[in-house]
Write a structure and sequence with these properties.
Length: 365
């Protein structure tokens, strides 16, 4: 054996992660390394001279024939699929076949290099299965929230109507404490209406609902600001912004994020008129947006909690709201494969940050 062949032999034998197989032009096994023995369970003595097609489940033999045909005509054949081991168990193999030609260009056989990637395949199947399950659960939840909020709305409207009638028609009898109780009913009804509306908005912030495209964040911001006209005017808020970039995303949903963050910056203002600044910084893989305010600020102990649904730091009725806004922001930003967080100190204002990747895989959104 020449020294070069010796090293070649060592390499082929040593690579026991890979089956390295030589076939004759008809597809019979001409050489079989240790990797092939390990992966398939056949020893070299058992398999030499046998057709390699015996490694394929009967229903997939045509794929093997196609792999050889492809190698002959295109110079390379590839196959990924189930193979049969000697003991009848199956493994998922991935490999390539290359033709070997003699000096006259005649087909002398094939080389086939293959790996057992059953574990990876199982893992991918499980992931795909989980992803389908999650998508189904999400769809069910969305439907559930829509139905529940629709069904809750009708009795709520009936209660609101009755309270209004009581107030109008029994005003005299209900003076004083009675009127106060009716006001409490009406407040409760209004609050419940808001929670139902927000819950529905949360359920609707789902990936599949809206399309992803290139969006101009300057336009998204203008639209969000025009929706906030009233609170901006009422509070005397001054809102400034840097030039904003174009990103891949859903304009509607990103608008909702800005709307919630700026709406909060106005709502949780301190004694002074709100000063709010929206900016964007380019980083290697994403854009980082921020909304900075000079409001009441937040204790760092609550940074995590406020992104969970229905979590509020002021339950005493000073500020209207249901604690869903930031949960919606988080859901939307994560659908865009970004992150959301904040920096704040009580009495010193808050800055909310979120990122939007420059490249998105699409289906996640
Ligand atoms: P909501 O405003 O309806 O309560 P959010 O989910 O938008 O719900 O916010 C959750 C909580 O986080 C708020 O109740 C408030 O306590 C706090 N918060 C949010 N944004 C700000 C902000 N800009 N400044 C101070 N506190 C804030």
């Amino acid at each position: 054996m020449e020294i070069r062949d010796f090293y070649y032999h060592l390499m082929v034998e040593g690579a026991d992660e890979f089956a390295i197989i030589m076939l004759d032009p008809e597809g019979r096994v001409a050489s079989w390394n240790r990797g092939a023995e390990r992966i398939t369970g056949y020893t070299r003595e058992e398999i030499l001279g046998q057709f390699i097609s015996r490694l394929f489940p009967p229903e997939d033999v045509w794929q093997h024939e196609q792999e050889l045909r492809q190698a002959r005509t295109e110079g390379r054949g590839a196959h990924e699929g189930w193979y049969l081991r000697k003991d009848g168990r199956r493994f998922w193999g991935s490999g390539v076949v290359t033709p070997i030609r003699d000096t006259d260009g005649r087909l002398a056989g094939f080389s086939k290099i293959m790996r057992d990637i059953t574990d990876r395949k199982r893992f991918e199947d499980q992931l795909a299965h989980k992803a389908r399950e999650l998508a189904n659960i999400n769809a069910e939840l969305e439907q559930f929230a829509a139905v529940v909020s629709h069904d809750l709305r009708s009795p709520l409207l009936a209660i609101a109507g009755c309270a209004q009638l009581l107030r109008e028609q029994f005003a005299e009898q209900l003076a004083g404490e009675g009127a106060e109780l009716i006001s409490m009913i009406q407040d409760g009804v209004n609050r419940m209406g808001l929670i139902i509306k927000d819950l529905l908005a949360f359920a609707r912030a789902t990936p599949a609902r809206d399309r992803v495209e290139e969006v101009d964040m300057n336009e998204v911001l203008s639209k969000a600001l025009s929706d906030l006209n009233e609170p901006v005017a009422e509070s005397g808020a001054v809102i400034t912004h840097d030039p904003l970039p174009r990103v891949m995303g859903n304009a509607n949903q990103l608008g909702q994020v800005l709307n919630n963050l700026i709406g909060n910056a106005i709502k949780y203002r301190s004694g002074e008129p709100p000063r709010i600044h929206v900016s964007a910084g380019e980083r290697e893989r994403d854009w980082e947006f921020s909304v900075r305010d000079n409001g009441i600020g937040i204790d760092p102990a609550h940074f995590e909690r406020i992104f969970a649904i229905f979590q509020r730091l002021h339950e005493d009725g000073r500020y209207a709201g249901s604690g869903v806004g930031l949960a919606i922001c988080k859901k939307i930003v994560e659908h865009h494969q970004g992150r959301i967080w904040l920096d704040s100190q009580p009495g010193r204002g808050s800055t909310f940050f979120f990122t939007v990747p420059k490249q998105t895989d699409g289906p996640g959104i």
